[in-house]
Amino acid sequence: DDNEFWRIYSVHERKGQSHVERRNLGYFDLIVVKKGCLFLAEEEQQYEIRENEMFILLPDRHHYGWKPCEE
């Protein structure tokens, strides 16, 4: 649907896994970390999203895990 701005789904990254690499999703992606830390990059900027934090990925950017989960 061309009018879709958000997608909601659940992903559980396990120890040793990295976030999937994606480009130009076409929608905003809200990341909520319930436990541990997610090592995520958007374009060249690296982020550490920790337990109980949220992060919004922009729809027209390249994002990927820059480091595997540690727990």
Folded structure, characterized:
The protein has 71 residues and is mainly β. 0% of the residues lie in helices and 41% in strands. The chain has strands spanning 6-7, 22-23, 28-32, 37-42, 45-50, 54-57, 62-65. The strands form 2 sheets. The protein has a 4-stranded antiparallel beta sheet, with no helix packed on it. A hairpin with a 2-residue loop joins strand 4 (37-42) and strand 5 (45-50). The protein is globular and about 30 Å long. The protein starts with 5 loop residues before the first strand and ends in a 6-residue tail after the last strand.
Number of strands: 7
Strand content: 35-45%
Specify the helix fraction band.
under 10%
Main pleated-sheet profile: 4 strands, antiparallel
Amino-to-carboxy terminus distance: 36 Å
Low-confidence stretches: none
